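Tokens help. Our protein:
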Amino acid sequence: MKEYIVFYENIFLRFSLDKLGLCVQKLENNRFSEKQILLSNAKEDFCALADDAVHIVCQSESGSIIYLTFDGKTWRKTVLLESKEGRAYRKYFSLIKLGNLVNLFYTINHEDKTLLIHQILDGTYSEPEVVDFVTPCGVRFCISEHVSTDVSITYKNQNGVCGSKVYRWSKKSFMQFVPFTENTDFEPHFINITDHGTQLIGVSDTGNEKKIVFYAKNELGESVKNELASGNEDFNPVFFTYRGKTVAQWYDRGCVMAATSEDDGKSFSTPVKYIKNAYSDISLFELCSPRQKCLCYGLKKGNSITFYSAKDILSEMKNEKKKVKSVLSGNDAAQFAAKSGYKKTNGWDDDPYVTQKELKYEIEKLQKMLDDCRNRVEKIEKMGKNDEKEIL
């Protein structure tokens, strides 16, 4: 069961779900305090997010979806969706901040199908929206923010194809499904999108064995593929960036394995095995602050946690300076385009942002035009003034 550690108002809060229900602990002197019960009837799974408040989504033992918020003083509870089935089952909750609003993603079972659901938690609690039918495998879906306020959600559709849909925040709608890989045996587990490209890690299951595969695709669509391990285990691989390195981790035969890359996933070091003892437990943690989120395996011993490959990750998260996103609004993008003397192609009409990839494409077009002009001028100079009209 995944746990969450959020950084809110200069304090780390740890949330976990066990037989007591949904519990919270506070980090004090490098150790977490004793558990306090937030919701005793919480079951199966939950998720947490921190920005100007702490947000938690969980479910009751009857399967109703519950939304909890904490403003630093008071916890508030809202029932988002009453269960018609009367039972709880794992829904793979995920919270993400888009614009100024919190967005919730989860899956539900309906008539032998699995539906991926999106809901904006804007205070009015808008109606849930069906994103797509998904194949019930792996972690069901994974989400990554763009450099802009858009977000990509990656999953296997009902045909077993791994791909993504982009949610355009300005349109409040999803774009078409775009396949990431043609391999139907690939199950996505974690994705990260930066201004340099896309990184995706998952498991390829051929039936005979499972392989952990790491894909890195740059902004031009060029990709590399690395197989990090193989076997018949439930690996559940993740990765994160720590001190300039990409750290991939996975679970294997009761131990955590880790490999690092210093070239954005093009190559990885030989995996290192972290062996736990009989008095400790391993858990996957999602670490969240108003500036970043990351998944990392940790060794639990009493009320202390040691994070594999990233011992000081909480301290660095606390001291990290706020990252400023460089984004052009829709109007700014239109003005930029007009001043540059070009119109967007139909393929980009639904995108209000001038992306790095688009700018590069337009610059290449302008460069080609300049090269053509230079070639024509050279021909004119060689052929003489009498042929000038014919060439132009």
